[in-house]
Amino acid sequence: MPIYKIVSALLDYPDQELLDHLPEIRTEIEGSQRIDVEEKETLLKFLDHLTSTPLTEQQTEYVKTFDMTPEHSLHLTHHLFGDDNDRARGPALIDLGELYKDYGIKVAAKELPDFLPVILEFAAMLEDSEATTFLSDAHKVLAVLTDNLNKADSPYAALLSIVKNRASLTRLAA
Questions:
Q1: pLDDT digits (tens, 9 = 90+) for 72-123
Q2: DSSP of 59-79, one letter per residue?
Q3: Longest pairwise C-alpha distance within the chain
Q4: Do 140 and 168 touch, CB atoms closer than 8 A?
Q5: What are phi and psi of 133, to 5 degrees?
Q6: Which residue intervals of 32-115 are DSSP H helices?
Q7: What is the mean pLDDT of the chain?
Q8: 99 CB contacts (<8 Å, ≥6 apart)?
Q9: Which SS3 state, helix, strand or coil, does residue 33 take?
Q10: How many C-beta neighbours within 10 Å does residue 56 have?
């Protein structure tokens, strides 16, 4: 289970199924050679948070963080265009949806293609260098979102930091 798939699962709305899979996610993280030590510590600390927090409290925190606070939206085009600018946001969503189709991916009807867990699921299917290049296009948005979550003292900020840092690897190499 690549790191992007793990972070995608952890950034999605928490439910009992996620909690049931935490032991295998922990095992995957601990045994992975492709996740560095700092990332492992961050992920395991987040798993500890999930394990020690009742599900209803997690769900309340998630809705408050991501659904009630526009600055924390996991819909990345929101940070670029806002919700009111459908003329710019619409084509970006269509382009992203077409990219997924080119790879044979079908996005669930309930989610927009710019939802970060969907983007990370897609990145998890790519080769590491291709995923990093793909995510580097969203580096600025990831940086803003990470900063916003850090300011709110959200435990989710650590997960975004992992993605942001990996997305910046390509930018540094260029």
A1: 999 999 888 776 656 778 888 889 999 999 998 888 777 899 999 999 999 9
A2: HHHHIIIIIS-GGG-SBHHHH
A3: 46
A4: no
A5: -65, -45
A6: 37-52, 55-62, 76-81, 86-102
A7: 91
A8: none
A9: coil
A10: 9
